[in-house]
Amino acid sequence: MIRILLADDHTLFRQGLRQILEAEEGMEVVGEASDGTEAVQRAWQLEPDVILMDIQMPKMDGVEATRQIAGRSPKSRVIVLTMYRQDKYLFDAIKAGAQGYLLKDAESAEVTSAIRQVYQGEAIIDPGLAAKMIDEFKRLEKEARPQELQELSPQEMEILERVAEGKSNAEIANQLYLSEKTVRNRLTVIYEKLQVNNRTQAALLARQAGLGQPPEPKEEE
C-alpha cells in the first residue's frame, strides 16, 4: 500500500485528489495539509511514502517544505503538483529534494502513474518541462565538480552514468546484468557518497561532470 500525504491550500482540490487516489488499488491517503508548515509536521508524524506538494501555500511555500522534509523525513518522496511552469520553481523544487514535478492540468492517470514510479525510486518530470531540464543540464556541464565522484566504485560510476541518461532501475539492471534490488541498494550508497537526496539530484551532479546524455523530451501528441 502506497501511503500518500496531500499538501495543498485548496480544500476542494485536496478532496478531489483524495477521491481519485483512494479509488486506485494499492493507494491510501493517510493525511492532508493546508500549508507548508503543516506539511512538514504531518510528514514527520505520518511518514508517508509519497507527498503531493503544492508550491504556493501559506506560512511556508512548497519548496521550503520540500527542503525540510528531505532533511527530516528522507524516506518520504515528494512530487510537486502545481500550476506553475516557470523554470525557477522547477529547478528550486528539484534542488530542494523533490523527486517529481507535475502540472495540475495533468490527467489523473499521469498523477497515479507518477506516484507509483516515484515510490519505486524513479524521477518524474512533466513532459512539457523536460526540455527546460535539458537546458539546465547543459548549463551545469560548465560547472563540473568531479571531486564529488572520486569515492564511487567503477560499478557505481556505471550506474550513475545510466541514471544521468534517464534510465530506469529495470533498464540499468538489464544493461549491467544486476538485479533491480542490487541497483536500488547501489543507488542508496551513491546518494550517500555524493551527499544528495535523490535520483534527480544525482543525475544533475553527474551531468555537471559530463557523464551520460540527458533524456530526450517526449513529443506531445
Detailed description of the structure:
With 221 residues, the protein is an alpha/beta fold. It has two domains: 132 residues, Response regulator (Rossmann fold), CATH 3.40.50; 65 residues, Winged helix-like DNA-binding domain superfamily/Winged helix DNA-binding domain (Arc Repressor Mutant, subunit A, Orthogonal Bundle), CATH 1.10.10.10. The two termini are 32 Å apart. The chain is globular, with a radius of gyration of 17 Å. Helix 2 packs parallel to helix 3 and helix 7 crosses helix 10.
Write a compact overview of the structure shown.
With about 220 residues, the protein is α/β, with parallel strands linked by helices. The protein has 2 domains: about 1-135, Rossmann fold, CATH 3.40.50; about 145-210, Arc Repressor Mutant, subunit A (Orthogonal Bundle). Helix content is about 50%, strand content about 15%.
